[in-house]
Amino acid sequence: AQRVTQPEKLLSVFKGAPVELKCNYSYSGSPELFWYVQYSRQRLQLLLRHISRESIKGFTADLNKGETSFHLKKPFAQEEDSAMYYCALRGTGANNLFFGTGTRLTVIP
Amino acid sequence: NAGVMQNPRHLVRRRGQEARLRCSPMKGHSHVYWYRQLPEEGLKFMVYLQKENIIDESGMPKERFSAEFPKEGPSILRIQQVVRGDSAAYFCASSPPSHLGEQYFGPGTRLTVT
C-alpha cells in the first residue's frame, strides 16, 4: 500500500534561516513525487516535481530512493514562503495523487 | 485561462438533502479528478473522469456519492441524503492528457451539513 508521511504538522523558522520540510513515502514501485503549496486564501498549486529536477522559488527537493524520502529544502526562508505544503505521490500507471497530511510553514520576520 | 472553476464555494445543507458540486476544468484539459479533505487530513482521491466516462472511482464511497462529466458542461459531484460526516472541503483538479500527475486545482467547495 502506498503511504505519504509528513511528520511535522507545524514548522516555524526565522526569516533567512534554512528550512526543510520532511516527506517520506512508502511505495513498492517507482513513484512520481510532487510538492504542492497552498498560500493563504489561494488554491493548491504545484510547486515542483522530482522528475523536473528544478528549483522553484528557491526550493529544491531530491528524491532519495534509499531512504524513501523527498524532503523540500530552501537555504534562506522568506516571509512569503509561509503556507501549507503537501507532499504527493503518483504511483506507476496511477491516475490520481496520494497526498500527505501537510505541513504548515510559518516564517517569522 | 481562468483556471479550474468550482461552484459554489460554500454550500450548507441539512441532513438528508442533496448536494451538487460543480467543476469546470481548465481549457484544453479533458481529465478531471475529485478529492475530499476532511479536517486535519490530507486530500483523499475520490474519482477520476474523462468526458462521458468514469475511469477510476476507487475512492468513492459506495453509497450516496456519484460523479459525472458530460460531453457538454461541468463535472458534477453529487451527494445524496447528506450526513454530518460529509462535511468537508471538496477539491476538483484537471490535467492535460500528457501530464496526469501535473494537476491544477480549483479553489474547492466547502460543504457544511447541519
Your description of this structure?
The complex is a heterodimer of chains A (109) and B (114). Chain A has 109 residues and is mainly β. Chain A has no helices and eleven strands. Chain A has strands at 3-5, 10-14, 19-21, 24-26, 32-38, 45-49, 60-61, 72-74, 83-90, 98-99, 103-108. In chain A, strands 2, 5, 6, 9, 10 and 11 form a six-stranded mixed beta sheet that branches. In chain A, 35% of the residues are buried. With 114 residues, chain B is mainly β. Chain B is built from no helices and eleven strands. In chain B, strands 2, 4, 5, 6, 9, 10 and 11 form a seven-stranded mixed beta sheet that branches. In chain B, a hairpin with a 5-residue loop joins strand 4 and strand 5 (43-50). Chain B is globular, with a radius of gyration of 13 Å. The mean pLDDT of chain B is 92. The A-B interface holds A 4, 32, 34, 36, 43-46, 49, 86, 90, 95-102 and B 3-4, 31, 33, 35, 40-45, 48, 55-56, 59, 91, 100-108.
Brief rundown of the structure:
The complex is a heterodimer of chains A (109) and B (114). By secondary structure, chain A is mostly beta strands.
Task: Annotate the secondary structure layout.
The complex is a heterodimer of chains A (about 110) and B (about 110).
Chain A: E1 3-5, E2 10-14, E3 19-21, E4 24-26, E5 32-38, E6 45-49, E7 60-61, E8 72-74, E9 83-90, E10 98-99, E11 103-108
Parallel strand pairs in A: 2-11
Antiparallel strand pairs in A: 1-4, 3-8, 5-6, 5-9, 7-8, 9-10, 9-11
Chain B: E1 5-7, E2 10-13, E3 19-24, E4 31-37, E5 43-50, E6 53-56, E7 65-68, E8 75-79, E9 88-95, E10 104-105, E11 109-113
Parallel strand pairs in B: 2-11
Antiparallel strand pairs in B: 1-3, 3-8, 4-5, 4-9, 5-6, 7-8, 9-10, 9-11
Order of H and E elements of chain B = EEEEEEEEEEE
Count of DSSP helices of chain A?
0
Class of secondary structure makeup of chain B: mainly beta
Number of strands of chain B: 11
Number of strands of chain A: 11
Shape of chain A: globular
Mean pLDDT of chain A: 92
Main structural class of chain A? mainly beta
Helix content of chain A: under 10%
Low-pLDDT stretches of chain A are: none
End-to-end Cα distance of chain B, whole Å, is: 36 Å
Order of helices and strands of chain A: EEEEEEEEEEE
Distance between the termini of chain A: 41 Å
Radius of gyration of chain A: 13 Å
Please give the radius of gyration of chain B in angstroms.
13 Å
Write down the overall mean pLDDT of chain B. 92
How much of the polypeptide of chain B forms β-strand, as a percent range? over 45%
| Helical segment count of chain B | 0
| Unreliable residue stretches of chain B | none
Helix content of chain B: under 10%
